[in-house]
Amino acid sequence: MHVWHAPRFLHMTPTMVEHSSLDIMCLNKYCHSSSSSSSSEHDKKIFTKLKLNLSGDYPRKNAEILSGQYGTNLLLIGAALMLAIAHHDPSVKEEHLLSFATCLMILQLIWMMWYILVRDRQKNTRTEKDVHATTCWIRGGLTLLALLSLIMDAFRIGYYVGYQSCVSAVLGVYPVIHATHTIAQVHFLWFHIKDVIKSFETFERFGVIHAVFTNLLLWCNGVMSEAEHFLNNHKRRLSALGYENLTIEHSEPDCNCTTSTCSMFSSSLYYLYPFNIEYHIFVSALLFVMWKNIGRTIDLSSNRKRLVTKTQGLTLGPILGLLALASTIGILVVYITHVEGSLRMRQSAISMFYIYGIVMLVVMCFAGASGLLIYRANHMPLDTSKNPSRQLDTELLFGSSIGSWFMSWCSVVAVLSTTSSPPYRWTNLIYSLLIVLEKYVQNLFIIESLYRQQETGEREDPELPAAPEIFSVTSSLAPPYNGIINRAYETPDRTCVTMENEQEESGQVYRCPRKHSEVPLPVGTKVVEPPNIKRQILKNIAVLLIMCNISLWILPAFGCRPQYDNGLEQETFGFSIWTTVLNFAIPLNLFYRMHSVASLFEVFRRV
């Protein structure tokens, strides 16, 4: 017999019920606080993650800022010494500047040796490389400039030997260290400039930026020496024309030369200065790209060698370019021989230069505008991938244009405000305006060419050879083989293709395995497609602009500077102000022309 028992909750006393209700209330309260704490924990996780992300970037940003400030202050110390030397303060001499530059070069040599030794110990570790950092032809050009710099160092050593009894030993030590620095730096450029540094990042940032600003300081020193040489020559010409109150500084030592070659060494140095100046500024630009690449994550899909197209139909561009180069040499010889003659010969030489410059700039404007029209007709998208080298090219083109633009607008103001009327007055005005226009057009042409995406489908490009490792079969040759698809035909969007990053320095080539097609290919059939007329025109334009920029670099680099000799700007702005403008603008203009040559050669390869 079963006995019925009352439910347990019926036996609860009021006190128990009260405690039970309190327990339920506490449970509800606990549930609410649990939800609130989980939300706060989620916020804390997000904040911690954000904090970690920010703190992960902080060491890199701090290293960039600190190293950048370190390099800038090195350059400013050197600039302060150069200004004191230019003022001819007896307490600050050239030996002090050369000693400072020598110490900087020794420190860079120590860093490069350490870097090379560390990389040699890490042979088993593959070093990432930025294939866009530089090209073989740029390094070859820098090697040629380095050889000319070594010749200049040999002349300096010979000059020191002749005057060693009365000059400081620093004048002998400096060219020896500079020659060693040049040789080691060229080796570094050939084998390590493309490296993307991922170890000892903070230390390496300081090492690379030290190298950047060391080369910038050597560039500034060369610019100052060359400017002082041209200024003294200009003062001599003015003194010969009857101008007074001009102080010509003599830099010859107080003793006699013990050899018969001192004067030859001294005069030959100034013909080699332009090459040494361009060498150091280009090296600093390449090292700056390396500094920007430190710690960078390389996008393998965009880190490929640029396609180099075949060269066909190059006739008009090289012919016109060689004609411009030959006429430039003739203009240079005539100008240098006539500018120091009588007043009439001097004015005719200056007029000849401006007429030559107007013709040259009109041709360059027309060529650049034609290239831009071709690009507008061909609607290709721009390449927006991250590329520090290309970005630096663009910034340097714009930055170095400022010097000649400023000089041109000063000439325009001088021509319009002067009361004198020499025969070259209005040709000077036209020449100055064309300088501004030509740089506008050329900068647009170069930048658009560098940022244009190359035609990815070699199918549409008759000049580009087909990839030799891809065996594709069209439907016109054979039907599918039992429904099996030829996988070698599906390469464009595969992930493995992005890994095909050929690293020429490491000697390693990464290729994806591809199966050969089972369908036999026809032998002996060759499809001849018509040449691409637009590409041929663009290549001729690039060659013509290369030769014209070389011509416009040669003239001011070797002494053809009518801005010193025409007298219009000097009459308006005064001698000291105008020479200061020229000392600022002419080095930037020289760098612009040489940098344009490098960029246009890259355009020629990519078009």
What would your notes on this structure say?
The chain has 607 residues and is mostly helical. It is built from 14 helices and no strands. The chain has helices at 14-86, 94-121, 136-163, 170-192, 201-240, 262-293, 316-338, 343-377, 388-417, 425-451, 533-557, 562-565, 568-573, 575-606. Helix 3 (136-163) runs antiparallel to helix 6 (262-293). The chain is globular and about 85 Å long. The relative contact order is 0.10. Residues 1-36 and 457-529 have low confidence and may be disordered.
List the keywords:
Proton channel OTOP1; 607 residues; transport; proton channel activity; 0% strand; mainly alpha; hydrogen ion transport; disordered N terminus; globular; 14 helices
The strand count comes to 0
Query: What is the helix fraction of residues, given as a range?
Result: 55-70%
Shape: globular
Let me know the largest β-sheet.
none
Mean pLDDT over the full residue set? 78
In sequence order, what are the helices and strands, one letter per element? HHHHHHHHHHHHHH
Weakly predicted, low-confidence segments: 1-36, 457-529
Strand content: under 5%
Based on secondary structure, the structural category is: mainly alpha
Radius of gyration: 34 Å
**Total number of helices:** 14
How far is the first residue's CA from the last residue's CA? 105 Å
